[in-house]
């Protein structure tokens, strides 16, 4: 019942946000730079499976409209790969007997799966859509793609706490911070009673931000890793000089 209430809540908020947003004015004669910034980027996936829809390689992309922010949330939260990842998380949680009040067996696994899936959906809903739309922040990760490894490492880890504004410039990533706390608060509605409360809510929010910061490493460096893998495969596919033993 409580999870159902949360689902209804998530369905109602988009209408509230859309009602507060005015459509962005479009230039009748866009410049070449605007055309490049508006050009859709190809869907990015790690290993061809894990989605990276919220990563942009464009240095000055056109700000996302509220509708586009909602689409980003929806594509990321309900991608088939996410259901598999949630299933693995629930399996690990059951093996470790986390949230023992859920019990074991199929029923316990179902409860853990439902809780993990609701965590993922609510977190993405608030950090990728609701707060970015209300606060005019861009939820995407702006990939640096160049510079020293040390500089890019620090940049990647810090982007969970730095956000690009729709009007230009940067600000503290309130969307990520508020989204983590909001999602953590909502989880009190469906976690066992022993796993609720203010301290646990803030702990879950902190862990969420930590994972988000570490996720920046994947967003920043995966294309480099992929290029190295491709280069290695190409070199391996070229027949080299062979000597008879």
Question: How would you sum up this structure in a few lines?
Answer:
The protein contains 8 helices and 7 strands, in the order H-H-E-E-E-H-H-H-E-E-H-E-E-H-H.
Q: What is the rounded Rg? A: 21 Å
Mean pLDDT: 82
Write down how many β-strands occur, each being a DSSP E stretch of 2 or more residues: 7
Overall morphology: globular
- The overall number of domains is 1
Low-confidence stretches: 1-27, 36-40, 241-245
Order of helices and strands: HHEEEHHHEEHEEHH
Descriptive notes:
This protein is mainly alpha-helical and 245 residues long. It has one domain (48-236). It has 8 helices and 7 strands, in the order H-H-E-E-E-H-H-H-E-E-H-E-E-H-H. The strands form 3 sheets. A 3-stranded antiparallel sheet has the order 4-6-7.
How would you describe this structure in keywords?
single chain, 245 residues, mainly alpha, three-stranded antiparallel sheet, 7 strands, globular
List strands and helices in order, with pairings.
Blueprint (H helix, E strand, L loop, with lengths): L1 H19 L11 H7 L6 E2 L3 E2 L3 E2 L9 H12 L2 H16 L9 H31 L1 E2 L2 E2 L6 H10 L3 E4 L4 E3 L1 H13 L11 H40 L8
Helix pairs in contact: 1-5, 3-5, 4-5, 5-7, 6-8, 7-8
């Amino acid at each position: 019942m409580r999870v159902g209430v949360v689902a209804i809540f998530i369905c109602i908020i988009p209408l509230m946000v859309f009602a507060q947003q005015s459509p962005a004015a479009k230039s009748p004669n866009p410049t070449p730079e605007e055309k490049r910034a508006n050009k859709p980027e190809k869907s990015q996936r790690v290993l061809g499976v894990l989605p990276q829809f919220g990563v942009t390689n464009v240095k000055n992309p056109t700000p996302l409209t509220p509708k586009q922010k909602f689409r980003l949330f929806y594509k990321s939260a309900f991608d088939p790969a996410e259901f598999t990842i949630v299933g693995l998380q629930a399996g690990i949680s059951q093996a470790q007997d986390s949230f023992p009040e859920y019990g074991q067996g199929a029923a316990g696994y179902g409860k853990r799966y439902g809780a993990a899936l609701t965590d993922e959906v609510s977190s993405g809903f608030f950090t990728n859509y609701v707060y970015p739309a209300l606060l005019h922040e861009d939820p995407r990760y702006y990939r640096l793609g160049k510079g020293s490894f040390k500089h890019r490492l620090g940049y990647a880890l810090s982007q969970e706490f730095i956000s690009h504004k729709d009007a230009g410039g940067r600000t503290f990533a309130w969307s990520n911070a508020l989204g983590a706390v909001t999602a953590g608060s909502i989880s009190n509605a469906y976690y066992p009673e022993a796993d609720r409360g203010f301290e646990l809510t803030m702990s879950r929010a902190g862990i969420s931000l930590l994972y988000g910061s570490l996720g920046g490493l994947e967003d920043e460096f995966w294309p480099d890793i992929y290029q190295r893998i491709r280069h290695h495969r190409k070199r391996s596919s070229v027949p080299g000089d062979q000597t008879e033993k």
